[in-house]
Write a structure and sequence with these properties.
Elements lengths: L1 H27 L6 H19 L2 H12 L2 H13 L17
Length: about 100
C-alpha cells in the first residue's frame, strides 16, 4: 500500500509539473503552437462543441468538476477511501482473547 501511495503521489506531482509548465508556456509564449498545444486546442474545441449541445445541468457539472479542477480532488479522495483498511476493535470477552 505504501508503494502504491508513493507512486500515485509521484504521478500527481509530475502531472502538476507538466500542467504548470503548460500554463506558463501558454500564458507567456507567443510563438507558433507545437503539436501538443494543437492537440489540446483541438480536444478543447470538441469539448466546447459537445457543451453547446448539453443541457444546463451538464454545463454546470462541467463548470464545477472540470473547469475548477474539483474532479482531481474527488479522484484523490476516492483513491484514499479505496485504500483505507478497517481497523479491528478490541474484544473484551475473556473466552475469546485474540493475541
Amino acid at each position: 500500500m505504501l508503494t502504491t501511495t508513493i507512486i500515485v503521489s509521484v504521478f500527481i506531482g509530475i502531472l502538476a509539473l507538466f500542467a504548470s509548465a503548460y500554463i506558463s508556456i501558454r500564458k507567456y509564449f507567443t510563438g507558433k503552437m507545437n503539436i501538443v498545444e494543437n492537440a489540446i486546442e483541438l480536444i478543447l474545441t470538441y469539448i466546447m462543441r459537445l457543451m453547446v449541445k448539453t443541457n444546463n445541468f451538464g454545463k454546470e457539472v462541467y463548470k464545477i468538476l472540470i473547469s475548477q479542477g474539483i474532479i482531481w480532488i474527488l479522484l484523490l479522495l476516492a483513491y484514499i477511501a479505496a485504500n483505507v483498511e478497517p481497523s479491528y476493535g478490541v474484544i473484551y470477552d475473556a473466552k475469546r482473547v485474540i493475541c
